[in-house]
Backbone:
């Protein structure tokens, strides 16, 4: 039997948990940085292109100015103790890597047990990088992460689309998404004459030597939580396709998303292409038997938030149990 390195356990965390506690949505962010003529307008457009449209193709400067003028919003905050407890539960699971598409620092705040106000200096003290780079990257943070500890559990937090302290690192527009995919390809092929880099490592090491979060994503079991995987997120869809094509032994994808109550008179024959595509690639798609109620313009958000809270509690427990089971098996194997 091939002596395979242990499989990394990876949580990919989106903005969903923050949204369940009235955090800022991506649409809120785009509306905040939009030119006046685009504010509060319904625009049907893929998100990376919408960012170009609403800023007049001036994303970098506009976003930097927005962060400078709205630091607390951009860095994030934890207002409710239930929000902190939920993030701390994730930090206590013992995942090998936590990837987040968020630019803000709620996870780091939860680890430090503070509600807001992390200084740039405090964030810098968390910063680490792999030996793939000689210093922390300023853009496209493939090998740079924040190292934090919650109680006795260490965590590597990777802001895969950039972070607020480094506005130049934030991946938002279509051009930057394309450049990011190019970086993925470079990273995956670096130090390898073929595409079988991981396959060639099998049997040589007890643990993988990670050069970037991309390594962890390709090789590991990935638990996607609070992240819709919109079809416009083409960089991650590319990686999901690449993961499935990997020749070396690699992990599975587990996707968590609650069911949503059908709108009135909805055509039951309609197919959610996004969710069907996720089912093509994921080992499990789990709604944790939670359905989000239909919301009209006159409804407040509280009913939906209660159901989302229920969903996230169940999903986090499910992820914790899966990771614990895998790590226990590994311990028995190594005895």
Residues:
């Amino acid at each position: 039997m091939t002596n395979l390195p242990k499989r990394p356990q990876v949580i990919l965390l989106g903005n969903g948990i923050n949204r369940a506690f009235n955090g800022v949505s991506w649409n809120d962010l785009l509306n905040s940085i939009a030119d006046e003529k685009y504010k509060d307008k319904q625009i049907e457009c893929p998100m990376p292109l919408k960012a170009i449209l609403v800023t007049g193709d001036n994303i970098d400067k506009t976003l930097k100015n927005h962060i400078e003028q709205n630091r607390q919003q951009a860095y994030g905050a934890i207002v409710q103790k239930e929000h902190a407890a939920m993030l701390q539960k994730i930090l206590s699971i013992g995942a090998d890597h936590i990837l987040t598409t968020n630019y803000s620092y709620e996870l780091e705040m939860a680890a430090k047990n503070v509600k807001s106000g992390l200084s740039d200096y405090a964030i810098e003290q968390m910063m680490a990088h792999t030996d793939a780079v000689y210093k922390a990257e300023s853009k496209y943070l493939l090998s740079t992460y924040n190292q934090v500890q919650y109680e006795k559990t260490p965590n590597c937090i990777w802001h895969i689309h950039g972070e607020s302290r480094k506005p130049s690192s934030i991946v938002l527009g279509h051009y930057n998404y394309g450049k990011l995919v190019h970086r993925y390809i470079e990273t995956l092929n670096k130090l390898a004459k073929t595409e079988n880099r991981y396959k060639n490592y099998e049997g040589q090491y007890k643990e993988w030597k990670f050069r970037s979060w991309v390594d962890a994503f390709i090789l590991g079991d990935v638990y996607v939580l609070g992240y819709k995987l919109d079809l416009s997120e083409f960089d991650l869809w590319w990686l999901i396709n690449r993961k499935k094509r990997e020749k070396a032994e690699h992990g599975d994808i587990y996707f968590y998303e609650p069911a949503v109550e059908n709108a009135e008179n909805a055509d039951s024959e309609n197919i959610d292409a996004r969710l069907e595509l996720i089912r093509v690639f994921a080992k499990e798609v789990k709604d944790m038997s939670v359905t989000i109620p239909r919301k009209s313009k006159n409804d407040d958000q509280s009913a939906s938030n209660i159901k989302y809270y229920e969903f996230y509690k169940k999903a986090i427990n499910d992820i914790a149990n899966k990771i614990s089971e895998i790590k226990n098996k590994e311990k028995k194997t190594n005895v």
